Fold:
Amino acid sequence: MSEISLDGIPEWLMGRNSMHVSGMLPQGFEAYLRILHPAAGPSLGEEELPRPVTWSDIAAGTGIALQPETTWRELAGGPWDNVDVPGMGTVHPPAEGRLDQSSMIQLGKYLGETADKSTPIIAGFWDGWEPLANNASAPVEGVTRLEGSYSVNQGQYLFYTFSPESLSTAQWMDSVEFGWAEGNGITPSFLFPLNRAWCFATDLDQNSSLLGGPRSLVDPLLELNQLEALAIDQDADLSI
Structure:
C-alpha cells in the first residue's frame, strides 16, 4: 500500500463543533443515519451480563413517541438517569462515546463488504481511551497505525488504516490496543474511506452514533434488525 496522507482530513471531520448532526459529522452527504446505542436492562441471571434494551422498547413501555432526535433525557428525565420501564424493571443508560460490540460487528460487516476494495478505510480513535493510553500494541493483519496524532474538535485522535476484510470480519478487534480481549473494548470515533464517500462518527459525549453517505449505502441499514437506526436530518439537534 502506498503512503497514506491525511491532509485536510481533520478539517473535513471538524464540522461545526456543535451537538447538531452536522457538528459531529461532515456536511453535504445525501443521507444521514442515527444509530442508537442499546441501554442496559436487568440481567436474566446472577452470572449474566445486563440485557441489551432498545430505545423503542423503552419508549413503548413509558408511552413516549420515539423520534429521530429523541434524547435519553426525554426517556429517563436526565441525561445519565436510569429509567423504570413497566414490565421490564430498571434500565441503565447506554454507553457514551462507543458503540456496543454486537452493533459494531454488524455495521462493520456491512460497511466492509460494500466498501470499494481499492480505497483504504481510515479509523480514528480518541487517544484518551484506556486501552490506547496503555500503549499496548500487537500486529493484526489488515490494521496499520498511522504516524502522529491529529486534533479534531479540541480532542486528539490516533488514526489507523483498516482493510475492508479486517472491518467486515471484525478482525481489527483482535488487536490488543483496542481493548476487546480485556473486556474494555473501544470502537472508532471516526470511520471513513479515504475517498470520503461516507463517514461514521461517535461523539465522546453521545449515546448514539451517526453515519452519513449516499442513500444507497445508508438506507439499507434501516432494515438491519441488529441495529436500532433512524434516518435523521443533518441539521437535527442532539444536545444532551
About this structure: The first strand starts at residue 31 and ends at 36. The CA atoms of residues 30 and 206 lie 23 Å apart.
